[in-house]
Amino acid sequence: VVVLGEVLVGEGWSLSGIGGERQEVVSFNGEPVTFSSTSRIGNANLQFFWTLDRDQLNFLFVANSTEPYVGIGLGYNAMSPSDVVVVDRDNGVSEYRLVGRSAQILTQPSGRYEGVSQDATRAGQLKGRFSANLSALSLDPGNINIIWAFGPTSNSDITYHSLRGVIGGFSFSNPTTEVASTSSLKSILIAHGLMMATAWIIIAPFAIISARLLRFRDPLWFHVHKFGNITAVSLFLVAIIIGLIEGSRSHKVHFGIGVAMLITVTIHVTGGFLRPHKDEPYRELWYRVHFTTGSMLWLLGVVNTFLGIKIADAGPWSRVVVGVITGL
């Protein structure tokens, strides 16, 4: 091939040869690998490279994510049941069978994928490669569903993942430069994040500030403070129930902060109902405990909101929005 032009496109190099034929070259474990086509999955931080020779697909995927693993499966419209290739940063590449929320490693390959390998040498990026005979799998190269998932590991095994999606009707025979995936997060987990952010980034600060800035409007400040906190705590309790039922406990810091907040909320709310009158001897001690637990809740809520944004891989815009609101 005589190279006439060379332009860096995303992860790979795009080469133009005589006759306008283009090739995509990707570094895989330090060696250049050539493919005929590439496509970005814009809202999933994924990029695919492949060559289709009749029904034989040579496929490589690049995932830009800090999560420990990424999984890809061809020919499914749901996560379960399915056979997937999982690239695990710490434990290598394997085939898994997903059944419900459990993942069983296949000691004997399913036969769906061949030549499975990985490249995890670059921080914040995972690459996986395999080949598949689409005809043998009864798959139409012009219309294939692709499932994908990013997730954490626990005890050297992959765990239930909330960050996932399905790319419907992907075409290997007539590719486009960029396609979209379905929503990567379940709606119920998006609701979990929105309720937590609303509680601790908007309502709780307003309730805290009212106790200081509206003191001259007694008892208005007290009612604003009281019902603001009740609203924030109510949203928090609903959100944490959703997280416990639908989320993953493998994000240990996020989960641990949530548990710490639940304990602190219990102390704070109980203390609120036990508030002594102004002339009682323990009023000053009560105030210090109430102020401290309230401030801790707000601080932990802000930290966990940013951790949740990172886990959801929601993008920099969400951090900016939450940061601006928190600053205000």
TrEMBL record:
InterPro entries: Cyt_b561/ferric_Rdtase_TM, DOMON_domain. The keyword Electron transport applies. It is found in: Membrane. The keyword Transport applies. Its main location: membrane. PANTHER family: CYTOCHROME B561 AND DOMON DOMAIN-CONTAINING PROTEIN, OS01G0895300 PROTEIN. This is Cytochrome b561 domain-containing protein. It comes from Compsopogon caeruleus.
